[in-house]
C-alpha cells in the first residue's frame, strides 16, 4: 500500500468515531421505531428543511431509488413525510417532512446523548478547531 492508501492513526480513529456515532444514531432511531435508513431520510429532509427530489435523496443516502420508494411508502403511512409530484414533469417525485416528521427528527437528534456528552468534553477552542477541520474535509468526501 502506498502512504496515501495506508490507514493513518487519524483515519482509524475517525473510523472508530463514525462507528460509535452510528451506534448512538441507530439507538436513537430505534427508540422511535425507525430503521437507520428511515432516520437518515428523515434527517436529510430536515437538515436543511425542505422538499427534495427522491432521486437526489436516493443518491445522498446511497440507496437504489426503488428502495427509497418503499422506505418513503412506510414513512408516509406513519405521517412522517409527504410525497408530491412535479407539475411540469410528473415522473419527478419529491419528499418533504411533515410537522410530525420534523418533530421526530428533532427527537432523534436529541436522543443522541452519547455523541453530545462526548462532544461536550471539548473546550470551545477545541470544538471550533474540529468544526473548521471537518468543514474542509467533509465537502471533499461528499463530492465523490
Overview of this structure, please?
This protein has helices at 9-30, 36-46, 54-60, 65-77, 99-110, 113-120, 124-142, and strands spanning 52-53, 81-86, 89-97. The chain is built from seven helices and three strands, in the order ααβααββααα. The protein has 144 residues and is mainly alpha-helical. α2 crosses α5. A hairpin with a 2-residue loop joins β2 (81-86) and β3 (89-97). It is 64% helix and 12% strand. A three-stranded antiparallel sheet has the order 1-3-2. The chain starts with 8 loop residues before the first helix and ends with a helix. The protein is globular, with a radius of gyration of 18 Å.
Record the SSE blueprint:
Blueprint: H1 9-30, H2 36-46, E1 52-53, H3 54-60, H4 65-77, E2 81-86, E3 89-97, H5 99-110, H6 113-120, H7 124-142
Antiparallel strand pairs: 1-3, 2-3
Helix pairs in contact: 2-5, 3-4
Amino acid at each position: 500500500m502506498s502512504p496515501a492508501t495506508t490507514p493513518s492513526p487519524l483515519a482509524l480513529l475517525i473510523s472508530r468515531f463514525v462507528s460509535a456515532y452510528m451506534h448512538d444514531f441507530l439507538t436513537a432511531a430505534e427508540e422511535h421505531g425507525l430503521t437507520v435508513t428511515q432516520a437518515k431520510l428523515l434527517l436529510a429532509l430536515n437538515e436543511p428543511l425542505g422538499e427534495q427530489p427522491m432521486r437526489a435523496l436516493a443518491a445522498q443516502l446511497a440507496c437504489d431509488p426503488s428502495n427509497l420508494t418503499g422506505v418513503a411508502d412506510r414513512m408516509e403511512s406513519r405521517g412522517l413525510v409527504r410525497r408530491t409530484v412535479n407539475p411540469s414533469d410528473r415522473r419527478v417525485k419529491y419528499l418533504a417532512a411533515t410537522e410530525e416528521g420534523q418533530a421526530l427528527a428533532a427527537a432523534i437528534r436529541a436522543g443522541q446523548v452519547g455523541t453530545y456528552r462526548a462532544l461536550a468534553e471539548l473546550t470551545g477552542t477545541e470544538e471550533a478547531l474540529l468544526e473548521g477541520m471537518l468543514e474542509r474535509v467533509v465537502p471533499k468526501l461528499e463530492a465523490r
